[in-house]
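FORM 12-B: Structure-to-Sequence Request
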């Protein structure tokens, strides 16, 4: 799996500046203390702790230097500064080379395209970046790995492979009903489950993401995927659906075949809006934030719905969405049809009677350590969209499907 330069540089920045505790004061603090611009003082900042630093708060690199101008443009273009830091940015001031390198490493976390100018900037601060990481050879290796991951000036490959080795064990004394889904009437349920989903399995899931950017701010994602994880025991088709794994992936082309998993385009629209659209896109790809400490691609599928599978069903298909962000507040709206490719309005399409539709509106407020979101989703429910046996109780699934078993 390829490591990117931006990841280890941001980690290195956190390590280096955790030990630098307090150092360069702002000019206001210096004036109050009666000191000159080169004395150390007491100020609270920590680049590695997710607190953004205004470029004007540092010293030694001058505003007229090309390096200063390039880093300042990066801070603005990639939104490396928090709103608080922007409000405290009162004019251009000088900064040290080490602090400039720390800002550079912070912005590299958001860079997709390595331009010729950026490559020159990395070489200019090679020593300082190496000091932050503490390993010159490691920096050269990281740059090499980043360059090796590019197909062109605009595309990077990110791979993700999962291997699954496991089995289920079933216990209990309950008996089967008169019309069981699996097994015989009156049979012990644990025995019926073990006979259908009790073997140990070894399988895999492979994802290859091609991330393309034409402007440095947009994203064209084309994802290739292959898997041989069967419906039983971890594919949601076994006796117990709640043991389904998120890495489970099925397609009409069958197992072990490589095909398109995602293809969508995302780009900013003005200062506050972002649009997303594509023929193979998922609900969570079009939300400004994911409202859970658990990611949308955890191991057990049950934990990937933000605790509310009815609202966050992760419906997957063709659709589009838009979100608006202003400070800590954001609003998202999107629509997905699981069978958008089907031209028969009774069996698919966009917003038709037969479409597997999911429409979502989310309002969220996010701080550094916490966030809150409220969402409403309308889901057709009876044709593949919405909750299923792997993330809800049988009764909830029956209700969502209009009472049809």
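FORM 12-B RESPONSE
SEQUENCE OUT:
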């Amino acid at each position: 799996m390829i490591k990117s330069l931006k990841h280890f540089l941001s980690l290195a920045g956190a390590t280096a500046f955790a030990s630098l505790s307090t150092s360069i004061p702002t000019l206001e603090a210096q004036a109050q203390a009666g000191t000159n611009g080169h004395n150390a003082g007491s100020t609270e900042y920590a680049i590695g702790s997710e607190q953004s630093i205004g470029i004007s708060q540092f010293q030694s690199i001058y505003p007229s230097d090309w390096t200063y101008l390039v880093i300042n443009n990066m801070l603005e273009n990639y939104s490396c500064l928090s709103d608080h830091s922007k409000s405290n940015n009162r004019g251009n001031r000088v900064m040290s080379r080490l602090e400039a390198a720390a800002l550079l490493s912070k912005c590299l976390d958001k860079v997709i395209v390595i331009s010729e100018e950026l490559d020159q900037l990395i070489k200019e601060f090679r020593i300082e970046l190496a000091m932050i990481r503490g390993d010159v050879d490691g920096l050269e290796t990281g740059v090499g790995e980043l360059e090796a991951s590019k197909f062109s000036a605009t595309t990077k490959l990110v791979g993700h492979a999962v291997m699954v080795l496991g089995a289920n064990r079933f216990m209990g004394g309950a008996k089967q009903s008169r019309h069981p889904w699996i097994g015989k009437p009156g049979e012990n349920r644990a025995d019926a489950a073990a006979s259908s989903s009790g073997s140990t399995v070894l399988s895999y899931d492979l994802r290859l993401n091609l991330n393309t950017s034409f402007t440095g701010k947009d994203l064209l994602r084309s994802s290739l995927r292959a898997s041989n994880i069967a419906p039983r025991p971890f594919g949601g088709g076994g006796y117990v659906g709640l043991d389904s794994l998120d890495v489970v992936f099925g397609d009409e082309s069958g197992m072990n075949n490589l095909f398109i998993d995602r293809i969508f385009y995302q780009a900013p629209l003005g200062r506050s809006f972002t649009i997303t659209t594509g023929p193979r896109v998922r609900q969570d790809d079009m939300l400004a934030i994911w409202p859970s400490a658990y990611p949308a691609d955890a191991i057990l599928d049950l934990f990937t719905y933000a605790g509310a599978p009815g609202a966050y069903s992760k419906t997957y298909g063709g659709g589009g969405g838009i979100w608006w962000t202003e400070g800590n507040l954001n609003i998202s709206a999107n629509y997905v049809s699981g069978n958008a490719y089907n031209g028969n309005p009774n069996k698919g399409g966009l917003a038709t009677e037969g479409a597997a539709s999911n429409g979502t509106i989310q309002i969220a407020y996010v701080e550094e350590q916490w966030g809150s979101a409220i969402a409403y989703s309308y889901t057709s429910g009876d044709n593949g969209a919405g909750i299923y046996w792997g993330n809800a109780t049988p009764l909830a699934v029956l209700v969502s499907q209009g009472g049809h078993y």
